[in-house]
Amino acid sequence: MKHSPGFLKLVEDTRGRVREIHVDDVRAMLEHAEDFELVDVREDGEWAGGHLPRARHLGKGIIERDIEVAIPDHGRRLVLYCGGGYRSALAADAIQRMGYRNVLSMNGGFRAWREAGHPVIEE
């Protein structure tokens, strides 16, 4: 997908404030049953087409509204992902501004996860 220059500028600015994590590191965290929340911020249709194991769905359009009910602990380790890593960076930045202190964005998103051959939950 080709993104607009304004969107890419916004994401690059955001990435300076957000920690990112590689898909292989997320896979290792899942394999070792580490304690963290994995949050898919994609749209409903994207979620329905497949998602990561153990993920919960809080789309970017509603995450700021619903996260404090879904995950009230502002210190909880969170890993957010989207299709390519852009929307998850934007969402991570937003929830950090809400007081969440341990937030990571999965670089490359669902696309990189699939390309790496990691497991996907198909519904």
Number of strands: 5
Largest sheet entry: 5 strands, parallel
Please tell me how large the radius of gyration is: 13 Å
Order of helices and strands: HEHEHEHEHEH
Report the structural category: alpha/beta
Residues in helices, as a percent range: 40-55%
Low-confidence stretches at least 5 residues in length (pLDDT < 50)? none
Counted by DSSP, the helix tally is: 6
The coarse silhouette is globular
Beta-strand percent range:
5-15%
The chain-level mean pLDDT equals: 96
Cα separation of the termini? 24 Å
- Regarding quaternary structure, what we see is single chain
| Major sheet strand order | 1-5-4-2-3
Short account of what is shown:
With 123 residues, this protein is α/β, with parallel strands linked by helices.
